[in-house]
Amino acid sequence: MSDARLPDGFGVRIDPTTRTRSGGRVLIGGSPLRMLTLAPAAADMIGDGHLEVVDRSTAAVARRLLDSGIAHPRPMSSPAPSDVTVVVPVRDNVDGLARLLPALRGLTVIVVDDGSVVPLEVAEPPDGTTGVTVVRHETSRGPAAARNTGLLSATTPLVAFLDSDVVPCKGWLELLLGHFSDPAVALVAPRIVALRPGGSVLARYEHTRSSLDLGRKESAVRAGSPVSYVPSAAMVVRRDVLTDLGGFDETMHVAEDVDLCWRLQDAGRRLRYEPVAHVAHDHRVSLRTWFARKVFYGTGAAPLADRHAGLAAPVAMSKWTLASVLAAASGTRLGGLAAVVTFLVTTARLRRTFTRLDEPTRIAAILAARGFGHGARQLASALCRSYWPITLVAMLFSRRVRYLTAVAAVVEGVVDWAEHRDVGGLDPVRHTVFKRLDDLAYGAGLWLGAIRSRDLRALVPRIGN
Fold this sequence. Notes:
Blueprint: E1 11-14, E2 19-21, E3 26-29, E4 34-37, H1 40-46, E5 50-52, H2 56-68, E6 71-74, E7 84-90, H3 94-100, E8 108-114, E9 131-137, H4 143-153, E10 158-162, E11 166-168, H5 172-177, E12 185-194, H6 201-209, E13 219-220, E14 234-238, H7 239-245, H8 256-266, E15 270-281, H9 287-298, H10 301-307, E16 316-318, H11 319-329, H12 333-353, H13 360-384, H14 388-397, H15 399-420, H16 428-453, E17 462-464
Parallel strand pairs: 7-8, 7-10, 8-9, 12-15, 16-17
Antiparallel strand pairs: 1-5, 1-6, 2-3, 3-4, 10-14, 11-15, 12-14, 13-15
Helix pairs in contact: 6-16, 9-16, 11-12, 11-13, 12-13, 13-15, 14-15, 15-16
């Protein structure tokens, strides 16, 4: 099933950031960045950047483009909403449930009451357009177990999981269902946006920079990519695939959605993020609850590192990029020289990959510079996020570390603001302050989880060749 043929009429569109060389035979793009070489016949199929599946050959090329991340799906048909059961895990959130259910009219809904103090009772809507079934856990077993109970109670081919603190926007389900016309796709998720974009300074920051909002770029979901997982607050899955996989891991009370995505990936399934579909989330915007939630998210890294070796690493880059960035960060002449040398070595290594292309040196230099910038951004973020306790200790003993950390904290925060300023959030100063608080909370949770589990693998960087 993971390599099942795409149906006729299914289309793929080349990502606009993809670079084309050698008359369209060589495509450079995707994330992580890769070079894809096509046979002349395959290159001719793409034409103006769009490929429609009409036979076995075009299906094979389309699949290769999708799996490389160089192209995105343009499905032509989709299952019906009647093929979907919506599962809502809830505990002591009657108001949220009352707000959510009207948005699910016409759908089959299973509400799993996970040990609410007062057992939930859901009235059937007067027009009878929504069938709601309530299943109750007498004692709370956690959201993963509640979702699994709903999964086992469902009979439709597809199951949508929605938390009780979300409200789907118009057309959300239809936009997601189209992706299931690809028989290899097992999970699709929408973009999570703020239910109330305005309000306090913290609310405006969370609207811009919520951990649940994975941005506006469509993407495959893969570990190590910009969209490495999707949150279980809103997702649609194939019921049989998830059942065969054993559902959510009920021993995990945080990051169980990340674990599910990575297990599906290990099983050879495809996962998609569809940002055109929106589901609104009632963000926590009290400073205390917001900070505590970020700490809670951070504790999920330890169980992930135990289950998925290397995938939860806080830093991941090549040894050459690491050497170049560290040398440049030293601020010395010798360090600057070493950074230049390692950059040239990286460029030379990349150039060997592109010798068949026009301007191989230029392409290699651009990619090496991009890698250096990405590595510098990772390390700057890590100083203030994953490794801030170590950074704090080092600052007590080193004036250079204090200066470097201050520069990293400001520059990384401003760059992050620039990437998200079009969402309508804060000015760069306040955005940077809240970004640093965000990182402080997550890093605290990361270390807390590692100490509790007596396992430091979540703190170990992944350095490649």
